[in-house]
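Consider the tokenized backbone below.
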């Protein structure tokens, strides 16, 4: 009877949830009765239905919106409006193996606004993350599909510093994720947040959670199509006649003239008072009508002596814009999702195609995702997350001086793209440099492939073991299959030709798996104490194999004949490799909160790694954090403009095992012909393969030890309109893993990795956001993110080691007391103006008027290698992101700017273009018009001459250093959401169209293509002619929900 009465007293409650942003339905919002498990999920029209009693409280939550609570009275239908919030303090975020309310986090965690990610059209979410999280530094490339340098709070190792990326609890990658699948991203930056991941989290952790289905069946379509444009200005190079004039000027300044005529002599430009451009480029220049240019003589058939006839391009070939052209970019994503309180599903498929502006570069990717979850009765939940992708993405090979971008500034402009018969032209003519035709090089690789298949995912089982205890087991991993092949053509057009064709093919198989078993106890007692205890075991295993080979002199260039069975065995190469390593870990974490004011967390993890010897295989890594919510103290209650205020701090120790080979603990031996011997006194009459040390082991190698301290201040002010978070951190890394040089007596054995160096990083992270609303139609928000870090090497064997190699030496030195990758060499004090200044200055090799004058650092009176000094730092003083969003009725607007301040770069391109004798390739305008002379003593470029020496282009010096600071407009978007009344008749719930511009401008003093330069962890910020990331992009897009 009583049960029947209670049921009859319940009332059917209906409602609709919309967004204050655009008055559109909020699909998938959670509507629950507070304090119960009863609830519903809004459908595609934002509506919900549930049974409730008068006096119950409805709690409405949706990610990215402020949570609302509504008391149920006599009303049975509710129109509920949710307000967007960049900082809903009650929002639950994933911070490791569990989740927390944002307001309760005591570690260093940056929560990324996923909605903003798609403001930047890119093939990878890691590129979209640039400037979106304080403490996260990302350097990207314009090359489609290329990886980015991702660092959390600076460089903390001489080897791999990539953060751990966890996707739905499985170690994965951001590179190929479909951004439309992402629900949330958190960046864990200190030991308090990342210690739960142990050794894998030493470089920080990026936690990605993908979307789940909910509510009525929904289909969404998200797509854009656009065009990328190459930079308007390439390299500022001379035209052919200007190049000839520079040649004459350089020869005369060097005294390289005919003793009789007093004129320079050049095989292409003649021997007159002024240089004369030839009509044809041959070993010697030729004029029209010369017998040597008779087309009948032409031959590039390799069976006969080569004789190519190339007509000079007197107007000049713009090599940069010959290889860089407008290119399309498109993205399409379809998602079907839905669910109930018993099950949920999400299926998505995506296609991304980015043609690079550089000829024959591209990324094509197909991907699919299936996320499902089922509730078995009331206490058991099972589910899976599965992601599959295939990508075709041949790379340009390298970002050094030998790639095609570099040859766009190395190949002389007098050389045409094609010869008289339409075949590729080249600079085989004498004294035209050694650059290769970049169009030919890019065309010949068009059939090369870089193919990859990946399967990523996990399955899990979770049960309410007891009333307050949840048990969970999860097994997942990644399977990666790679296949690549490339054909190298025999060439005929260059000064230095490739004499035989070649074919390379390789394949790889890599997999990892993670098995995690955990228990979580959660309880609230005495209404003031909130306790959560987490304990887990985890096993991780990595395994991979690969094989490859190369053959030369294939009898045909036909793609149908390209395989490793064809070609000559002479010079053939082959290789294979295999690796396996594993981790086993015990994890414990405790979170405690008292009266919503005092917060405490402690984590301990014990990792065991197979890459270390028995003596140092296991490491224990603890951390503690604490927080004080000052705003909940009685003495703060009268301050109405403070909504929430918290100070927090933490300290912990993490381990790292980057750069350690799985067999590092062992000395390995291998057989080789060089170690063969004859069994003279035995019965064998043939040689016997001998063995020698292939690699030297070090069983004492142990974990890098990262000690991390963090202090933070968080506040939400002015009626929840303004958020600010400031953090100060210090990160000390002891026992850096590094491969030390071995004495020559060891032979050719590989070096072991040992613990030898210490590095210290410290800095500040700042995040602010302001949300304003002018009226019901117009709202806006402004966000600022700023990151600083300062790295310092505190210990290293031998005091230093050099990096950043070029043809004239190393530009980077890693030395105690200096930042990683600091630029090192001779500091240019000016240009010698006359012989008297040369005589009065410290003794310097090859000193002369018009050449560099170096600073006498040690004061010895003689310029020696002891006068080399640190003259630049590629690490920025700070990086920052500025985000502005606004909406007016059905219109929305957003813009995002990203900047880097205080970083120096080495413009190594200038070694090729500013100095005439640097292979006599194409030269800069400065080399002719701004070089020093007796009539132009204010010239900033040294004297034009045909000599290479210590005092001009012979050594690394500060002439190449430039300010690499920049501010870039990364994105500008204007969108319009159509009125529901116009759409409902067509079965469309929501339709938004938008126009977008990306990389619209870059403000910088840097004279190269792009100041955003990648590199490795010991040498970066050196421009060899890198693929620019600053190319503008214009797109039109559509977002539809059915």
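A designed sequence for it:
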């Amino acid at each position: 009877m009583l049960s029947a009465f209670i049921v009859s007293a319940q009332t059917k409650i209906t409602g609709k949830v919309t967004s204050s942003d655009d008055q559109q339905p909020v699909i998938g919002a959670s509507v629950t009765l507070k304090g119960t498990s009863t609830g519903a999920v809004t459908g595609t029209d934002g509506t919900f239905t549930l049974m409730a009693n008068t006096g119950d409280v409805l709690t409405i939550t949706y990610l990215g919106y402020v949570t609302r609570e509504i008391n149920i009275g006599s009303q049975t239908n509710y129109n509920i409006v949710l307000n967007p919030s960049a900082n809903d303090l009650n929002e639950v975020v994933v911070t490791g193996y569990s989740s927390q309310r944002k307001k309760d986090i005591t570690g260093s965690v940056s929560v990324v606004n996923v909605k903003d990610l798609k403001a930047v059209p890119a093939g990878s979410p890691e590129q979209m993350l640039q400037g979106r999280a304080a403490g996260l530094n990302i350097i990207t490339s314009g090359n489609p599909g290329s990886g980015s340098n991702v660092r959390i709070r600076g460089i903390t190792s001489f080897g791999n510093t990539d953060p751990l990326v966890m996707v739905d609890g499985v170690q994965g990658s951001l590179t190929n994720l479909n951004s439309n699948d992402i629900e949330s991203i958190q960046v864990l930056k200190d030991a308090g947040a990342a210690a739960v991941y142990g050794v894998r989290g030493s470089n920080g952790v990026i936690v990605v959670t993908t979307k789940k289905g909910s509510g009525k069946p929904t289909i969404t379509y998200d797509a854009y199509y656009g065009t990328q444009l190459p930079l308007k200005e390439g390299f500022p190079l001379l035209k052919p006649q200007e190049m000839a004039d520079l040649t004459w000027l350089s020869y005369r300044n060097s005294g390289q003239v005919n003793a009789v005529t007093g004129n320079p002599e050049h095989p292409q430009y003649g021997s007159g008072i002024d240089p004369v451009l030839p009509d044809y480029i041959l070993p010697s220049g030729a004029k029209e009508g010369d017998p040597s240019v008779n087309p009948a003589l032409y031959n590039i058939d390799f069976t006969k002596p080569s004789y190519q006839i190339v007509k000079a391009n007197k107007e000049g070939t713009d090599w940069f814009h010959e290889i860089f052209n407008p290119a399309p970019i498109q993205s399409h994503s379809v998602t079907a999702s839905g669910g109930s309180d018993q099950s949920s599903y999400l299926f998505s498929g995506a296609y991304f195609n980015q043609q690079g502006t550089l000829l024959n570069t591209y990324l094509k990717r197909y991907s699919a995702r299936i996320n499902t979850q089922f509730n078995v009765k009331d206490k058991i939940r099972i589910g899976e997350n599965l992601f599959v992708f295939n990508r075709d993405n041949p790379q340009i090979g390298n970002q050094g001086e030998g790639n095609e971008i570099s040859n766009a500034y190395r190949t002389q402009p007098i050389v045409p793209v094609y010869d008289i018969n339409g075949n590729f032209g080249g600079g085989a003519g004498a004294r035209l440099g050694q650059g290769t035709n970049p169009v030919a090089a890019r065309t010949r690789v068009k059939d090369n492939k870089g193919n990859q298949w990946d399967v990523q995912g996990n399955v899990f089982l979770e049960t309410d073991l007891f009333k307050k205890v949840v048990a969970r087991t999860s097994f997942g991993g990644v399977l990666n299959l790679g296949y690549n092949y490339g054909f190298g053509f025999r060439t005929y057009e260059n000064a230095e030709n490739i004499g035989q064709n070649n074919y390379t093919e390789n394949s790889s198989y890599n997999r990892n798996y993670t098995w995690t078993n955990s228990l979580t106890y959660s309880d609230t007692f005495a209404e003031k104490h909130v306790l959560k205890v987490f304990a887990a075991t985890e096993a991780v295993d990595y395994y991979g194999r690969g094989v490859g080979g190369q053959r030369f002199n294939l009898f045909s260039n036909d793609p149908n004949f390209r395989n490793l069975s064809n070609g000559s065995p002479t010079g053939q190469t082959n290789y294979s490799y295999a690796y396996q390593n594993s981790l086993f870990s015990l994890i414990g974490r405790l979170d405690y909160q008292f009266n919503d004011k005092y917060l405490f967390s402690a984590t301990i993890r014990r990792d065991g790694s197979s890459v270390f010897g028995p003596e140092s295989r296991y490491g224990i890594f603890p951390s503690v954090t604490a927080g004080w919510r000052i705003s909940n103290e009685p003495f703060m209650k009268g301050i109405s403009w403070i909504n929430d205020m918290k100070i927090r701090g933490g300290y912990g120790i993490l381990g790292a095992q980057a750069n350690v080979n799985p067999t590092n603990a062992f000395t390995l031996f291998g057989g080789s012909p060089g170690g063969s011997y004859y069994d003279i006194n035995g019965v064998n009459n043939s040689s016997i393969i001998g063995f020698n040390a292939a690699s030297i082991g070090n069983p004492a190698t142990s974990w890098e030890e990262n000690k991390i301290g963090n202090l933070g201040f968080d506040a939400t002010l002015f009626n929840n309109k303004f958020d600010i978070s400031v953090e100060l951190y210090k990160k000390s890394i002891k026992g850096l893993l590094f491969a030390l040089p071995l004495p020559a007596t060891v032979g050719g054995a590989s070096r072991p990795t040992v613990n030898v160096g210490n590095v210290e990083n410290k800095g500040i992270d700042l995040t602010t956001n302001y949300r304003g609303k002018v009226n019901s139609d117009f709202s806006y928000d402004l966000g600022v993110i700023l990151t600083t870090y300062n790295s310092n090497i505190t210990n290293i064997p031998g005091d230093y080691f050099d990096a950043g190699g070029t043809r004239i030496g190393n530009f980077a030195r890693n030395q105690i007391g200096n930042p990683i990758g600091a630029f090192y060499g001779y500091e240019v004090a000016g240009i010698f103006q006359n012989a008297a200044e040369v005589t009065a200055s410290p003794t310097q090799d090859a000193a002369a008027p018009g050449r560099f004058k170096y600073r006498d650092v040690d004061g010895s009176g003689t310029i020696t290698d002891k006068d080399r000094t640190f003259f630049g730092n590629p690490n920025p003083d700070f990086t920052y992101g500025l985000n502005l969003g606004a909406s007016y009725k059905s219109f929305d607007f957003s813009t995002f700017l990203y900047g880097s301040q205080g970083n120096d770069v080495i413009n190594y391109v200038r070694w090729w273009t500013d100095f005439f004798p640097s292979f006599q390739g194409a030269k800069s305008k400065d080399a002719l018009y701004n070089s020093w002379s007796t009539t132009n003593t204010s010239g900033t470029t040294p004297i034009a001459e045909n000599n290479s020496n210590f005092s001009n282009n012979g050594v690394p010096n500060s002439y190449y250093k430039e300010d690499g600071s920049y501010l870039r407009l990364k994105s500008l978007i204007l969108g319009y959401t159509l009125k529901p009344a116009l759409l409902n008749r067509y079965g469309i719930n929501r339709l938004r169209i938008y126009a977008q511009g990306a990389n619209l401008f870059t403000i910088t003093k840097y004279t190269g293509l792009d100041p955003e330069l990648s590199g490795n962890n010991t040498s970066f910020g050196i421009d060899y002619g890198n693929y620019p990331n600053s190319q503008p992009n214009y797109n039109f897009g559509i977002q539809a929900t059915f």
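The two ends are 45 Å apart (CA to CA).
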